[in-house]
């Protein structure tokens, strides 16, 4: 996609490489997504930036006090996150924007290492979609978090308390992904997204 550009972005330089997590380096809220969009993060170099899903996510983060502005356009736009970091289960833009289990497993060492480094301060993990939920559970388990059996099931506004290393507690929150398929059909509304992120902010002791 970075080579064969969409006509509307033909004059832009694409990042076209793996996308790292982005946001506060010592977060209390971690948001786990799927993968960079072909003409979003893959183009701009920042996860959830430059596509419709990101527009929804950052507007909500701003409304609940987790971002200093409601838009994310490019890497130098002045956006800052408050106690929050965004990571993706898959680090490169997948074909048709649909990450496969094989791609998830190939990228697993990166999200696992990132979660391990961030875990000491994390109090809430927001999982966008079932794919993000499963990837987060795998990464948390690899970092020493106790995941109950059977594994908790994904659902919008699902909430599961987990035990981390040193008897610390953290909360896993489910949220429908802000994809156009969900937002255009009304499966996910702005109040629904705001409610989950506001809950994460409260768990992370972050205030607007």
Strand content: 5-15%
Tell me the name of the CATH homologous superfamily.
Answer: Uracil-DNA glycosylase-like domain
Q: What profile does the largest beta sheet have?
A: 6 strands, mixed
Q: The CATH topology, please?
A: Uracil-DNA Glycosylase, subunit E
**Number of distinct beta strands:** 6
Question: How would you describe the shape?
Answer: globular
Secondary structure category: alpha/beta
- Provide the succession of SSEs: EEHHEHEHEEHH
Total domain modules = 1
What topology emerges from the helices and strands here?
Elements: E1 22-23, E2 29-33, H1 41-44, H2 52-63, E3 84-88, H3 101-118, E4 124-128, H4 129-142, E5 159-163, E6 169-175, H5 180-185, H6 190-203
Parallel strand pairs: 2-3, 2-4, 4-6
Antiparallel strand pairs: 1-3, 5-6
Helix pairs in contact: 2-6, 3-4
